[in-house]
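Reply to thread "Modeling small-molecule complexes from scratch"

Following up on the discussion above, here's a worked example others can learn from. I took a protein sequence and the SMILES for S-adenosylmethionine and predicted the complex. Inputs first:
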Amino acid sequence: MVFLNQVIIGDSLQVLKTIPDSSVDMCFADPPFNLDKKYVSYKDSLELDDYLAWCEQWLIELVRITKPTGSILVHNIPRWLTYYSTILNKHAHFRHWIAWNAMSTPLGKTLLPAHYGILFYSKEAKGTKFYEIRAPHEKCRECDAFLRDYGGKTDQRHPFGYLVSDVWNDIHRIRHNKRRDPHPCQLPIPLLERLILMTTDKDDIVLDPFLGTGTTAIAAKQLQRQYIGIELSPLYAGVAEQKLADVKKPSEYQGFSVSLYLDKIRSIRDCDTKHLFPQQLTTQAKRQKKQPSVPTPQLPLLLPESAAD
Ligand SMILES: C[S@@+](CC[C@H](N)C(=O)[O-])C[C@H]1O[C@@H](n2cnc3c(N)ncnc32)[C@H](O)[C@@H]1O
């Protein structure tokens, strides 16, 4: 494909129209939220109807370009995701609403918005690529004890970590300024790495129509996927390209693609853990191992009658 492994500076709707049907494995979109954020090339305060009409156009394009085995993931505040769902329900298949627990700003007399949503749709009802993900068991920072006891069945605790659900508490927003680009809403790379590990294989194509400073493309490159990024602002696109050039080695553990943060595995596919972490023995299996093996009784040597003669 012409745009493979490139950051394209342009209007996503126009660029998407040039991408062939059913050609991308996974689309991830993190559009402007229409909350008057200060982007350099885009005015983030459209009339409600204009914003929703625009969203409908690119959502339909994303479904069109996704392969039959592929997925469409969209990140936004719950308010807009309710509209997105009514659109996507007509063109694709609902899989999950992932609640990413990432505290945002108090808005006044409302419940404190503590999560963003990630809508997960598949292009087709069946045959979608999907891999379960494990994250490390949560431990007490002070004493290193496991925080969950799995109903007392500690011997059944997975040797690496738990299967992630549709509520993600373990991936944090970028807090430190030294990790931030000059962009008002940059997502953390581990968030995209988890989504990419969950829905794609090596060399698959991941597309982001609102690339910002490159989070999705960097996550894809680190996991050895191919990427297509579209961004209106040449400034943000330039930052993304620079960061992509700095990705020198894949994010791997013993040859398996994983999401690493501060040198620790944060997300790994369940199917890969089987090769890397030996299954913990259950209490029963341990007991069986401890029991001394019963000696085989010495049977009298019975010879055929003819031989005994
Ligand atoms: C919420 S931000 C995405 C941030 C990105 N996920 C990251 O982690 O850096 C939305 C981005 O969409 C870009 N944008 C707005 N309108 C666009 C359009 N029509 N085509 C392409 N990009 C656009 C903005 O410049 C902004 O960088």
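What I'd highlight from this example: The first strand starts at residue 6 and ends at 9. The chain has one domain: 6-278. Questions welcome below.
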